[in-house]
């Protein structure tokens, strides 16, 4: 298990954790959440052994193998599939030693190393690495390319695949979905659900957390609080705990009054009925959840457009793409005021191509694109963050598009995006990706758009900012067309989906669960057919491996049985030690209970020693037989 006791951790003068406590048992999957800068990544560095506690203890089993997703890439010349295989350090060691043994014609070492290779699933390693890459969106030809040929986001996918390739007892993942599209996230969810070890996950994707974790560790005010369940359960539990606070009550009532006012004004109007319905749904959840976000630093809205055209955009017979290459054919799309559309589709199918065309960054190769007279587009895409003036402050950025406004009005507006005080005047070049994204959204919100085109707007945003963006989009009266891997955002702000796939854009009659099933079928259709000769060769390999396993099976079953029993005894010992750690147990009135627990502990320790000895003997006999069988072969 992982046990943090009275832990104090600081970086420089900033104290991140103080007298913090946390216990995670083997096999648990926990999400680690908290404000940016609270110390989540620093805690990961502590668990990896890169830092030492300033006070208290951080205890992990000494034999645990730890895998983590690196943030840097150190070998640009490596082939992508080889780079992923490097994640299994033990496999690479065996392969190096086997190559040396074969060079020196050391038959005994060759036999032993082939056994080790089989035990490490080395014969299937290349196939497993390629399966990981395929799940994360890499095409077969991309797997053969050098790492340096990929962009930064795709290199992070390679680092994620490398971490998943590493056999581990503890897997530490820091924002693994940041550079993934929805397809890859759905695949990663399924992979992590089947991961047998202990998982600690930092993520700002609430649906991803709900799908994967069974506990949430909340880092707040230098303490760690463990909640049972996923993110939604955490949100409800924390809301209940904070519901009595006056500040939470006042904020909730203000939000309720705003929503009820909107519903009263627009519920009877046909043009506003859909938006009124979305407010009613949001209002139903408000009482339960609002207090959980009482301390959110974000509170903003998109300013209402001065005029509206209908339709806002009308694309017919559109042939869209780059240069002479068409990505989408015969696209027909009309965007009316109040439309709320989510774009779905596999990676590379053309979602961003469609949004760029509608935003005016690309011209249609053919077809007709008519823009409404009063159209005002608010376009968000990741490349726009790089277009921000690195030397200018958030205030100066806003002043450039709002030269006639009072400075205090602009500062108040930026405050809703958590740019306050001196932060309003600092150069953007020093900002994180999340801060740049917030500024880009602030500039769009100020511009009074009547159409929002959003391409992955939640990348780099934390959970509180994602919630604030969701509420602002629910309150937005214009049209929205969004591509996002954040399913909560899609479910909360869109009314219909368009599917972009196979060169076409068409309506998708279903929800996100239906889309996940569609993706499974789509991937099956796209899977390459294995040549017959290759299938025969693989069948021969499997038959040979099966014959070897059949001879080794009795010994292996005995070793596994002993290992399982040993694990059960160790679990009982661990639970017993937790009970013995209760200071109240040592009071005079509980001396009989203490004596019984100490007796159980002694019996279990004795049994643990017997099992360990028997298990090691079984492993030695198994290895000896494997070596003889390999030598005979």
From TrEMBL:
GO MF annotation list: ATP binding; ATP hydrolysis activity
Domain of life: Bacteria
Keyword Zinc part of the UniProt annotation: no
Coiled coil: 545-579
Keywords, alphabetical: ATP-binding, Coiled coil, Nucleotide-binding, Repeat
Record domain ABC transporter: where: 2-246, 310-527
Family: Belongs to the ABC transporter superfamily. ABCF family. YheS subfamily.
Protein name: Probable ATP-binding protein YheS
């Amino acid at each position: 298990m992982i046990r943090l006791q009275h832990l104090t951790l600081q970086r420089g003068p900033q104290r991140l954790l103080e007298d913090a406590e946390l216990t995670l048992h083997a096999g648990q999957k926990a999400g680690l959440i908290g404000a940016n800068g609270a110390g989540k990544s620093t805690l990961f560095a502590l668990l990896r052994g890169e830092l030492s506690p300033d006070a208290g203890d951080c205890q992990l089993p000494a034999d645990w193998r730890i895998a983590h997703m690196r943030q840097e890439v150190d070998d640009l010349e490596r082939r992508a599939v080889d780079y992923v295989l490097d994640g299994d350090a033990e496999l690479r060691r065996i392969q190096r030693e086997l190559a040396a043994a074969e060079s020196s014609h050391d038959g005994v070492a060759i036999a032993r190393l082939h056994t080790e290779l089989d035990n490490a699933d080395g014969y299937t390693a290349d196939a497993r690495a390629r399966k990981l890459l395929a799940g994360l969106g890499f095409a077969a030809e991309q797997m053969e390319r050098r790492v340096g040929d990929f962009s930064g986001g795709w290199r992070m996918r390679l680092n994620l695949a490398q971490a998943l390739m590493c056999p581990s007892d503890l897997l530490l993942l820091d924002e693994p979905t940041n550079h993934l599209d929805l397809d890859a996230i759905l695949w990663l969810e399924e992979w992590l659900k089947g991961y047998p070890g202990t998982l600690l996950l930092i993520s700002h994707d609430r649906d991803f957390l709900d799908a994967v974790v069974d506990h949430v560790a909340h880092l707040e005010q230098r303490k760690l609080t463990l909640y049972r369940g996923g993110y939604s359960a955490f949100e409800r539990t924390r809301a209940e705990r904070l519901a009595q606070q006056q500040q939470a009550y006042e904020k909730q009532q203000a939000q309720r009054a705003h929503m009820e006012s909107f519903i009263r004004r627009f519920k009877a109007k046909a043009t506003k009925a859909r938006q009124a319905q979305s407010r009613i749904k949001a209002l139903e959840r408000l009482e339960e959840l609002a207090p959980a976000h009482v301390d959110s630093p974000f509170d903003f809205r998109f300013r209402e457009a001065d005029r509206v055209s209908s339709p806002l955009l009308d694309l017919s017979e559109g042939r869209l793409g780059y240069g002479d290459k068409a990505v989408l054919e015969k696209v027909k799309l009309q965007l009316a005021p109040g439309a709320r559309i989510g774009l779905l589709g596999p990676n590379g199918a053309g979602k961003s191509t469609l949004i760029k065309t509608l935003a005016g960054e690309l011209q249609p190769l053919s077809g007709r694109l008519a823009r409404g007279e009063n159209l005002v587009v608010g376009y968000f895409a990741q490349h726009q963050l790089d277009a921000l003036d690195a030397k200018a402050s958030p205030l100066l950025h806003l002043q450039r598009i709002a030269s006639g406004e009072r400075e205090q009005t602009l500062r108040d507006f930026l405050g809703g995006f958590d740019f306050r005080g001196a932060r309003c005047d600092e150069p953007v070049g020093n900002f994180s990706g999340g801060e740049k994204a917030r500024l880009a959204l602030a500039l769009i919100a100020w511009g009074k758009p009547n159409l929002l085109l959003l391409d992955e707007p939640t990348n780099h945003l934390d959970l509180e900012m994602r919630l604030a963006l969701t509420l602002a989009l629910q309150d937005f009266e214009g049209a929205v067309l969004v591509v996002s891997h954040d399913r909560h955002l899609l479910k909360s702000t869109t009314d219909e989906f368009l599917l972009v796939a196979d060169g076409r854009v068409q309506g998708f009659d279903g929800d996100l669960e239906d889309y996940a099933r569609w993706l499974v079928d789509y991937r099956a259709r796209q899977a390459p057919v294995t040549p017959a000769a290759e299938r025969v060769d693989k069948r021969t390999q499997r038959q040979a491996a099966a014959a070897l396993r059949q001879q080794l099976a009795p010994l292996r079953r005995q070793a596994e049985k002993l290992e399982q029993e040993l694990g059960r005894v160790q679990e009982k010992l661990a639970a017993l030690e937790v009970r013995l750690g209760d200071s109240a147990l040592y009071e005079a009135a509980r001396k009989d209970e203490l004596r019984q627990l100490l007796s159980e502990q002694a019996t279990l320790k004795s049994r643990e020693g017997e099992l360990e000895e028997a298990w090691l003997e079984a492993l030695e006999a198994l290895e000896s037989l494997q070596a003889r069988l390999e030598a005979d072969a």
